[in-house]
Amino acid sequence: MKKIGLFICHCGSNIAGTVDIAKVKGYFSEYDDIEISDDYKYMCSEPGQKKLRDAIKERELDGVVVACCSPRMHEITFRNAAVSAGLNPYKVEIANIREQCSWVHQKEKDKATEKAIAIIKTMIEKVKRDEPLQPIEFNITKRALVIGGGIAGITAAIDIANAGYEVILVEKRHSIGGKMLELSETFPTLDCAQCTLTPKTVEAGRHPKIKLLVYSEVEEVKGYIGNFDVKIRRKASYVDWTKCTGCGLCQEKCPAKTESEFDHGLGERKAIYTLSPQAVPNKPIIDKNSCRFFREGKCRVCEKICPVQAINYEMKDEIIEEKVGAIIVATGYDILETEKIPEYGYGMYKDVIDGLQFERLNSASGPTGGEIRRPSDGKVPKEVVFIKCVGSRDPEKGIPYCSRICCMYLGKHARLYKHKVPDGQAYLFYMDIRSFGKGYEEFIQQSMEEANLLYIRGRVARIMQEGDKLVVWGVDTLSGRKVEIKADMVVLGTAVIPSGGAKELAKILRTSTDEYGFFSEAHIKLKPVESMTGGIYLAGCAQAPKDIPDTVAQAGAAAAKVLSLFGQEKMVQEPLIACVDADLCSGCGICVTACPFDARMLDDESKISIVNEALCQGCGACVSACPNKACQLRNASPQTYMAMVDRYL
Amino acid sequence: MKLILDRAKLNSDLVQSIKDISLQKIMACYQCGKCTAGCPLADAMDIVPNEMMRLVMLGEIDKLLSSKAIWLCTSCFQCGTRCPKGIEVHRVFEALRCLALRDGKNYTDMEKLPDEKLEEIPQQGIIAGFRKFESLE
Amino acid sequence: MEIYPYFPGCALSTKAKALDICARESMKALGIELKELEDWTCCGAVFPLAEDEHIRLVSPARSFYKAIKYSDRLVTLCSACFNVLRRSLKVLKENAARRERVINYMEEEALEPFPEQLKIHHFIELIRDVIGFENLSTKITKPLQGLKIAPFYDCLTFRPPKEMEFEDSENPRIFSNYITALGGIPVDFPYRSECCGAHLSVSNPDVSLECSYRIIKSAQLAGAEALLTSCPLCHYNLDFRQKEMAEKNIDFKPIPVFYLTQILGIALGLPKEVLGFEKNYVSPLSLLEGKGLI
To answer: Which homologous superfamily does the CATH classification assign to the domain defined by A334-497?
Structure first.
C-alpha cells in the first residue's frame, strides 16, 4: 500500500473553468494508494507549494502527483519543493490536465473531467513504480577552449583568463585579430581599428593564462560538457617560432611575390610573410604554394639569411591534444562571393570592389598607404558609387536576411572617402537605412549634412564598363526616375555569411547550424549565447551578423556562462537516462551504433553494453533498438507504461 | 492628391483579376526599384515599373489602365529576371494590358498601318502587335 | 547526314527566306540536314504571359505532336519561335491542368500521349552541342580574319532564365564563343542585352528607334565593325531602321548587322548567292571585300 499525495491545481480558470475539480478531488479521496487528495487555486504559488511540503512531512508521503500544467512549466518547481520536505524528487510526477485536457476540450466539460481523472490514474500508476533516483555528479575540467581569434574570441578569452582559468585560443590564420585587423576605422566614432584592437591582441598574447595556438584548427572533439577531449592540428609553418625573433629579414629578402589575401587581392605579399605589421604573434609562415623552394626546389634565401637558423623546410603538422571543460565558438564571418551577382561586374571590372577591399585601400598599412586610388590605374576616383544590399535581402540570388552592418559601414566608407578626396562626390544606393545603435543615426545624418553625400533610394540593375568609366544604372524610387551615373569606382556592400568551414566545424562539435551555416542558439531570445549542445557557447558573427559593440557584449556573456559552469564544484546530471539489465544483454552492440551521443559501448571484460552516464541524454534510441529489451530508460520501463495503459482501460 | 484606402479598395475585383491573371505575389514587392533601374523603356514611361507595382498594391488600377506605360512595355523580361523577390513583373504588366484589351478597346489599330510598313516589318512584329495591342473582340 | 526536324517560323519562310536558305546550306556543309516540319503552324510570336490564355498554347502543341514523329529534337532558328516553343513545352510538361485543357480542346490531334521527351533547340545549340565550337573551327575554310563583331544577346533567346534554361542571362557567352570559333573577334558592349524596341515599331516607332539607336551607338563606341543577331525583328530594328537613324542624326555612320547564320556561311566559303545579303539594308559587302572574305 503506497502513500501518494494528489494535488489538483485550478490554475485560475485555466483548468477549473473546464474540469470539475470538486468531482475529481472527490473521486480520488477514496482511491487505493492515495493518502490525501487536495486542491488549490495556484499550486505553483508559495502557499500552494507549502501545502505540498506540509503534506509530505505530516502524512509521510512516499510519492506525489500534481495535476496541473505541462511538466515543462513546473516539474522542477514541485520536485524542488519535495526535496525541501525530504522526499526524493523523482517520486514526483506531473499529470498534465491543462495543455492535454482542459485547454483542448473547453466545450466538453463532462468529457474533460472524465479525461482528467483518467490522466491522473495513469500518473498514479507511474509514480507507484518510480525508483527514488539520485542525480549523477562528475568532475569539471576547468579550462576553456576558444575557437577563433577575432575580437569575439579575444574578448571571451581575456575575460575567462582574468578570472583565473586557463584558456586555449585557437586561430586559423597565423596571427590573431580577425576581420577587425583588416579594418581602417570603425563606426560610429571613426576610431582607428588597430588602435582599439592591438591593446587586446597584445594582452591576449602575453596573458599568462592564455595559451595561443595560431595557424591551427580544431580537428576532433570528443566528450561532453565539463569533459571535452580535443585534438588540434597545428599546421606546419616551416619556421621554428621558438627561435624566430620576428626581425623580418626573411620577408624582406624573399624573391617570390604573390597576391595578398589580407589585402583581398589589391596588394602583394611574399611567400614567407607575417600577416600584418601589428601581428600577434609577430612570426612568419611560409606559404608552400608560392614558395620557390617548395615549388621548384630552388632559392632557400630565407634559410641562408636567418640570423638564428629558424627556417625548417622539413617541419610537419603537429597534433596537439587538450582537455577542456567548455568551448566557445567565435569563428566570425566572410562575405558572399560577389560573383554570384554578375550584373554588378565584380571580378570582371577591376574598379568594382567590395567593402573589405575598400578598408584596405583606406588603411595606412594597405596597398596604397591609405590613399584612395582605383585598382585599375591608380588614379584618384572623383565619382564613387556605394551600393548597399548586394546579395542581402535577396531570396533569388543571395541570402534573404539583412546583414546588419552594411548600412553603417558603407555610410562610414562614404564619409572616409570624402575626408580623403574633398572634391569627390559619393553616391549611396539604399533600400533602407538601418542605423539602430548608439550614436548610429546621428552619424548617418551628420554624414548626409556635412559630407554632401547623396543617398539615393533604389537598387542598381547593372554596372557596365564604358572606356575607363563604370556606367551604373540605378533608380531613385522617391522621384520615380531612372538614374545613370558614370562612376570612377564602385564599392559593393556584399552580404555577410558565416566563416568558411562553419558547417564542418559544427559537425566536429556535434552542434547545429541553421541553413546558412550560422551556429544555432538554444533559444533565440532567452539563450543567445548557448548552442544546442551543452558546454558549447557562441560569440560574435558565428551566431549571426553583428557589429563590434554587440560582438564584444556577446563574447562577455559567453565568458560569463563558462565562468558560471566553472564556478560549480561538480556537474550535476539528471538521472533519467538509459540503463542495462545485464542478465538480458547479449552484447550484440546495436545500441552502440544507435546512440547519437556516443554514450554507449561494450565493456571490454564483461562484453555487455554499458552507459556513459554523463553523455546519455535519455533520448531512448537504444531502447527501441535493443532486440532483447535489455536496455531501458530509468523510471520509464515498458512494464510501467503497460500498467498505466491497463489502468486507463 | 490624397489616397483613401480601405480593404474594399485593396482587394477589389480589378486587383483580384490582376493577381489571377499574373499569378504573382504582389505584396512581396518591397519597392527596391531594380525593375525600373534595368528597364530599357523606363525613360519613355509615364509610370515606371516599380511605381506600377506600388499602384497595384494600393488598388489604383484605373490610373494604370489609362497610362501610356503599359503599352510601352516590350515584354523583354529584364524586370522579372532581376527582381530579388522573384516577382515576374512582366506578367503584372501583361495582366494590366489584358484587363484593358478585354474591355474591348484596341491600343493600336493594326489595320491602319500603311502597306509599305506591312511589307517591311517581319511577320513576328506584326503578330506581336496584334496580340499585345488589339482586343480579341 | 544527320537529319533534324526544323521549325523555320513565318519570317524565315517568307520575307527572310534568304536567311533560311543560308542556314540550311551552312548546316548541309557541316553534315546536318534541317528538314522542315510538315504542316507547321505559326508559333504565335509571343509567349502567352497571362495565366488563363490556354488557346495560345494550341499552335505550339500542334507542332510538338508533329515533331515527335520524326525525332525528339526540334530545331529553330528564330529567337521568337525559340522563346515561344521552349516555354510552351515547359508549361505543358509541368502544368497538368493546363495541359489537360489544351489536349481536350485539340481532340483527335492529341490522341497520343503528350511528347514530354521532346526538346527544343536553338540553331546555336546544335552548333555548340552536336558539332562543337572547336570542331567547327577545323571545318571552316575562310576564317573571319579578326572581324570585330558585337553579338547582340536578344531578350527572347536568353530570358526569362528560369524558363529558358539556356545561358546565364547576365553573362551570356555563347554567341561570343561562336564568333571566336569562326575566326572573328567578339566585341562586348554595354547595351548587349537591352531590348531593341521589338514590336513597338508598329505602335510607337519613335520609342523603338531610340532603343535600337542606343544599341548601335554603344556597339560602335566599343569598336565593333558589325553586329550579330538571331532574331528577325531585332534584325529589322537594328539594320533596316538605320535608314531612319541616319535621317535623325547627321553624323550617324551605318554599320552592317549580320544574321546569325550569315557569318557561318561566309566562314564555310559558301557562294555569295546563298548568303542572303539582299536582306541586309546596310550592305556588308564592302566590309567583307576589304577583309578578303568574299
So the answer is: FAD/NAD(P)-binding domain (3.50.50.60)
